[in-house]
Design brief:
The protein has 254 residues and is an alpha/beta fold. It has 2 domains: 118 residues, NIF3 (NGG1p interacting factor 3)-like (Udp-n-acetylmuramoylalanyl-d-glutamate--2,6- Diaminopimelate Ligase, Chain: A, domain 1, 3-Layer(aba) Sandwich); 122 residues, NIF3 (NGG1p interacting factor 3)-like (Udp-n-acetylmuramoylalanyl-d-glutamate--2,6- Diaminopimelate Ligase, Chain: A, domain 1), CATH 3.40.1390. Helices cover 36% and strands 28% of the residues. It contains 10 helices and 13 strands. β11, α8 and β12 form a beta-alpha-beta unit. The chain is elongated.
């Protein structure tokens, strides 16, 4: 039988473990308060009504996501789709916890560190800054790998075909990774002389910059690049607190 963890103790642990300081685009931590004792957590990438319905049906006491409910520039009223989302949480007495950039940058369970290890990188270290704190990671391959093999590794790790601009050398030795919408940090990868850069999304200007700088660029999907961290974080919580944790996938091709 799974153990339970107090909601406030769980939030305190996550705030410290993930180091939730620094500016972000929305609040990190507890966003909606539910039951005080948590036996089961459902993890997912993005707060949405489908995830909350499925979490309630799965018997969750809390939902832990990477993309929470509240973002800069959004209306501050709980009406329409936002009301329907929150209503599902309240109906199920479920807490909502969200960690955005802290879950990108974490060197154990972060989206980018997990990807770097699964892609075979060594000497993984922080890469790319946002308000003085890192966003992603960079690392080295012990032996250079063909660019085509990097594409195949991305396909395996992220579970979908990446959009790849293979504009650099035939082999890749150094790689930077920033999950999600990290197009602008491509310039940082170029400045640091990295052979290749992986992020989630692509913008129109990327193709020509990749071609003209001789740097490989792979867009593996915003959602796909951000499944890894929340799954690893769920596993961490299951091991630490002995609670039941289930990842629910709501696939998004973007």
């Amino acid at each position: 039988m799974p153990s339970t963890v107090n909601r406030d103790a769980l939030v305190s642990h996550l705030d410290q473990y993930l180091d939730s300081r620094g500016r972000d685009y929305g609040p990190n931590g507890l966003q909606v308060e539910g039951r005080e004792e948590i036996r089961k957590i459902v993890t997912g990438v993005s707060a949405c009504q489908e995830l909350f319905v499925r979490a309630r049906e799965a018997g969750a006491d809390a939902v832990l996501v990477h993309h929470g409910l509240f973002w800069e520039g959004m209306p501050r009223t709980l009406t329409g789709f936002q009301y329907r989302r929150v209503a599902e949480l309240i109906r199920g007495e479920m807490s909502l916890l969200a960690y955005h950039l802290p879950l990108d940058r974490h060197l154990e369970v972060g989206n980018n560190a997990v990807a770097g290890r699964e892609l075979g990188l060594r000497r993984i270290e922080p890469f790319g800054l946002h308000d003085g704190l890192p966003l992603g990671v960079k690392g080295l391959y012990p032996e250079p790998i063909p660019a085509a093999e990097l594409v195949e590794r991305c396909r395996q790790v992220y579970g979908q075909e990446p959009l790849a601009y293979l504009s650099g050398r035939d082999t890749v030795s150094t790689l930077g990774i920033i999950s999600g919408g990290g197009q602008r940090e491509f310039y940082t990868a170029i400045e640091e002389g990295l052979d290749a850069y992986i992020t989630g999304e692509v913008t129109e200007w990327v193709m020509n910059v990749a071609k003209e700088t001789g740097t490989h660029y792979l867009a593996a999907g915003h959602y796909a690049t951000e499944r890894l961290g929340v799954r690893a974080l769920g596993q961490h919580l299951a091991e630490r607190f002995g609670i039941d944790v289930e990842f629910i996938d709501v696939p998004n091709p973007a």
